[in-house]
Each structure stands twice: as structure tokens, then as C-alpha cells.
């Protein structure tokens, strides 16, 4: 299998894992707050990677000087995204936040892919991008966007930050060990989670854990480790803007899981959105087959 197809499948798998997070978060909800989840999952994944690196005798600090700045940007911006989302979701609705995040992510990734990675702009990419953006518009209907508030602005900035993080993954992938790259990302999440816990006094709110809660937390952490690693590998071998479109498939998986798992209703606008986003991925797959 060609590396590009492996990259495609890695990002597709990442979108599925992202889409399933709603189930896992609801399962862990009775035990941990969102900030505590951020800290706990980052801590567990950080420890797992540290053990693997120790066993494989891979250094996490022996990094070329010219890669230190991109690595710092990758970690710091990732931490900033967590801050922005934590604050923004309180100021706006989930649908508006999702629309703002993915709209800015799709557009920004296209610009970055052309300007910095010289990945070109084809008809297939245009069609796929238009379908994905149209899908986002239908996802936010019928409520629509009456006004653009601070919450949408912050999630939009977070979307741009997400492109920066993925761009750094694409640039650093292959230059820095993928596990080391993920470990620094977890370190950033760990620090941010701890700061948010202290700032919101959530260290005084600890629910007792039973076996079910421990299993769900471990499952959540392992999934987070897997998607972090797959994202690094995926963008290392795949187009930045097209890869971002694939990640937007998360919305489809989340809607389907909500429908089948939680019996949540799907309105005609959501169904139309799911079809449009899925078609955008089909266009990508068809163009890949033609290219090969």
C-alpha cells in the first residue's frame, strides 16, 4: 500500500475516533470534569509514551536545534487551543462553535498547503472543499448564525491554531520520532489541564472511581494516544488541506453514533450535511485513484 493511502486511512481512522469521543466523554462525565479529563488523559498517555521510549532507548531531548522552535510552536499552540475551546464553549452554542472551528480550519489549511507546502490547487480539491463547507452550513441550520459573538471568534482562532499544529506535525514528521512528538503534545495538554483545574478549583471536586470508570478512562486515554499518533503519521504522508477535510468527517461519525447509541434525532438539514461531507471524501478518494 502506498504511503499516501496509509496517510488517508490514518486520518480517516482519526475522524472515527474523534466522532466517538461523545460516547466516552459521557461515560466518564460522572467521574471527572472536562478539565480533569484533559489532565488525566494527557498524564496517562505521557506516561505510556515515556515508558515506550525508555524501553526502546529513544531520547526525547536529543533534538536538532533547527527543530526546537517548530516543536515549541506545535506544543504551545496545542495548549492554546485547549484554553480557547474551554472558554469559548461557554460563550456560544456547540453548533456555532463547530461551524466556526471547521470553517476556519478548512479555509486556512487550504492557504497554508498552497503557500508553504506547495501542494497545489486542483479541481477535485475545489469540489471537495466546497462540498465540505456546504455540509458545515447545513449542520448549523435551521438555527443559523444570528450574530458572530466572542465564542465564535475564539473557536475560529482555535481552528487556525489547529492548522498550525497539523502543519507542524507535517513538517516535523520524519524529522522527530513520532512518539516524541506526541509526548510533547501530551506534556502541553497535561500542563494546561492542571492550570485549568487549579484556576477553577476543580481539585476539590473528585468523585470516587469504580472499575467501570477506570476502564473508560484507560480506553479514552488509549484512543487519544492512537488518534494523536495517527494524525502525525497521516499528515506526514497526506495533503494538508485534503487531510483537514477528511478530519471533518468527525461530524458525520458523531451524528451517526448519537443516532444509534443515544437515539438522538437527525433532522433533514443534518442528513443533508452528512451526505455533503461524505461526498467530499468520496471526491478525494476518486481523485487519489485517478492519480495512481
In one word, what is the shape? globular
Tally of alpha and pi helices: 11
Unreliable stretches covering 5 or more consecutive residues? none
Order of helices and strands: HHHHHHHHHHH
Round the mean pLDDT to the nearest integer and report it. 89
The percentage of residues in β strands lies in under 5%
Rg result: 19 Å
- Summarize the amount of helix as a percent range: over 70%
Number of β-strand runs: 0
Structural class: mainly alpha
Q: What composes the largest sheet?
A: none
Domain tally: 1
- N-to-C span: 11 Å
Write a brief caption for the model.
With 292 residues, this protein is mainly alpha-helical. Helix content is 78%, strand content 0%.
Characterise the protein shown here.
The chain is mainly α and 292 residues long. The chain has one domain. The protein is 78% helix and 0% strand. It is built from 11 helices and no strands. It is globular. The protein starts with a helix and ends with a helix. The model has no long low-confidence stretch (mean pLDDT 89).
Amino acid at each position: 500500500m502506498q504511503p499516501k493511502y496509509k496517510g488517508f486511512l490514518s486520518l480517516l481512522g482519526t475522524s472515527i475516533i474523534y466522532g466517538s469521543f461523545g460516547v466516552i466523554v459521557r461515560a466518564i462525565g460522572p467521574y471527572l470534569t472536562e478539565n480533569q479529563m484533559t489532565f488525566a488523559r494527557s498524564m496517562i498517555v505521557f506516561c505510556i509514551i515515556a515508558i515506550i521510549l525508555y524501553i526502546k532507548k529513544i531520547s526525547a531531548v536529543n533534538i536538532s536545534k533547527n527543530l526546537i522552535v517548530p516543536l515549541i510552536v506545535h506544543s504551545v499552540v496545542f495548549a492554546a487551543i485547549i484554553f480557547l475551546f474551554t472558554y469559548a464553549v461557554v460563550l456560544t452554542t456547540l453548533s456555532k462553535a463547530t461551524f466556526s472551528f471547521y470553517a476556519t480550519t478548512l479555509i486556512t489549511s487550504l492557504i497554508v498547503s498552497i503557500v508553504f507546502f506547495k501542494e497545489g490547487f486542483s479541481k477535485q480539491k475545489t469540489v471537495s472543499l466546497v462540498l465540505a463547507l456546504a455540509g458545515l452550513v447545513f449542520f448549523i441550520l435551521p438555527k443559523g448564525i444570528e450574530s458572530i459573538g466572542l465564542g465564535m471568534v475564539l473557536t475560529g482562532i482555535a481552528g487556525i491554531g489547529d492548522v498550525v499544529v497539523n502543519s507542524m506535525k507535517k513538517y516535523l514528521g520524519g524529522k522527530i520520532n513520532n512518539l516524541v512528538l506526541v509526548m510533547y503534545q501530551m506534556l502541553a495538554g497535561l500542563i494546561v489541564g492542571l492550570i485549568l483545574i487549579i484556576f477553577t478549583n476543580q481539585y476539590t471536586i473528585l468523585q470516587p472511581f469504580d472499575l467501570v470508570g477506570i476502564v473508560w478512562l484507560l480506553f479514552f486515554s488509549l484512543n487519544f494516544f492512537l488518534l494523536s499518533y495517527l494524525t502525525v503519521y497521516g499528515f506526514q504522508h497526506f495533503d494538508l488541506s485534503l487531510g483537514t477535510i477528511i478530519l471533518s468527517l468527525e461530524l458525520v461519525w458523531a451524528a451517526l453514533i448519537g443516532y444509534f447509541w443515544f437515539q438522538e434525532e437527525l433532522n433533514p438539514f443534518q442528513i443533508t450535511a452528512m451526505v455533503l461531507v461524505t461526498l467530499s471524501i468520496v471526491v478525494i478518494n476518486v481523485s487519489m485513484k485517478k492519480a495512481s
